[in-house]
């Protein structure tokens, strides 16, 4: 749906070359709103190129001087032409780096305004692994979905779910540890159940590791957990 909408917007505006479209999506009604259209190669384009192996900037440059997609050879694969879209057998996560650890009095609510000062990118065979890689790459001292919520009551943890801020994902993980139903978390946060399920998988693996006897672990078990 959003892909088709993006192509329609780009065709209507007559854009040739690099472009990205940002949306806000209402998952309950599937209504979407266009936040902005960037008819240029941007920082996000560099991340997308790394994630997919598709040389966006190089292709955009050649389009600018008159080449068409079926005339531009993919310099990464050396086989396909630029009119072929890349296919992936891995998951890529782009995770924002928030500055609120340095600007402690700043408003940490997240909306459509740009507040991130950077981002990290990670890839792995599964979403769960890619997400945890991204968290470790933020250089904030966090290595898992922990945020010091262990001292809070169940009521306080549930209240944290209502706040759309940089701590929300960690509040969701803590809520799952407390046994708060996934359906309730989805209803409060309005986050798609697919993502809540993936966070629940991470929490379940945490519990498995904590309860397991390390001496009984095999090489295969360690590789699976990793």
TrEMBL record:
Q: Which Gene Ontology terms describe the biological processes this protein takes part in?
A: glutamine metabolic process
Which cellular component appears as one GO term in the record? Answer: cytoplasm
Reactions it catalyzes: hydrogencarbonate + NH4(+) + 2 ATP = carbamoyl phosphate + 2 ADP + phosphate + 2 H(+)
InterPro entries reported in the protein's UniProt record: ATP-grasp, CarbamoylP_synth_lsu_oligo_sf, CPAse_ATP-bd, CPSase_dom, CPSase_lsu_oligo
**Main EC class of this protein?**
ligase
Q: Which UniProt keywords apply?
A: ATP-binding, Ligase, Nucleotide-binding
UniProt KW Ligase keyword: yes
Assigned EC number: 6.3.4.16
The answer to whether keyword Acetylation applies is no
Q: Which SUPFAM superfamilies match?
A: Carbamoyl phosphate synthetase, large subunit connection domain, Glutathione synthetase ATP-binding domain-like
Q: Where is the ATP-grasp domain?
A: 2-65
Q: Which GO terms describe its molecular function?
A: ATP binding; carbamoyl-phosphate synthase (ammonia) activity; carbamoyl-phosphate synthase (glutamine-hydrolyzing) activity; metal ion binding
Q: Which residues form the signal peptide?
A: none
Name of the protein in its database record: carbamoyl-phosphate synthase (ammonia)
Organism, as annotated: bioreactor metagenome
Organism lineage reads as: unclassified sequences, metagenomes, ecological metagenomes
């Amino acid at each position: 749906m959003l892909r088709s909408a993006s192509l329609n917007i780009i065709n209507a505006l007559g854009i040739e070359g690099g472009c990205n479209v940002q949306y806000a999506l209402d998952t309950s009604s599937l209504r979407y709103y266009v936040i902005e259209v960037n008819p240029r190669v941007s920082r996000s384009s560099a991340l997308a190129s790394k994630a997919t192996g598709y040389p966006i900037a190089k292709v955009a440059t050649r389009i600018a001087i008159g080449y068409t997609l079926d005339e531009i050879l993919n310099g990464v694969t050396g086989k396909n032409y630029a009119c072929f879209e890349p296919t992936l057998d891995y998951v890529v996560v782009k995770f924002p780096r928030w500055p609120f650890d340095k600007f402690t009095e700043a408003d940490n609510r997240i909306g459509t305004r740009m507040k991130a000062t950077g981002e990290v990118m990670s890839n792995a065979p599964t979403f769960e692994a890619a997400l945890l890689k991204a968290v470790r790459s933020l250089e904030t001292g966090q290595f898992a979905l922990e945020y010091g919520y262990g001292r809070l009551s169940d009521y306080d943890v549930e209240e944290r779910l209502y706040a759309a801020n940089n701590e929300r994902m960690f509040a969701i993980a803590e809520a799952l540890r407390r046994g708060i139903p996934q359906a309730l978390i989805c209803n409060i946060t309005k986050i798609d159940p697919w993502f809540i399920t993936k966070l629940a998988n991470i929490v379940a693996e945490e519990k498995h590791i904590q309860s397991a006897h390390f001496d009984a672990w095999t090489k295969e078990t360690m590789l699976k957990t990793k």
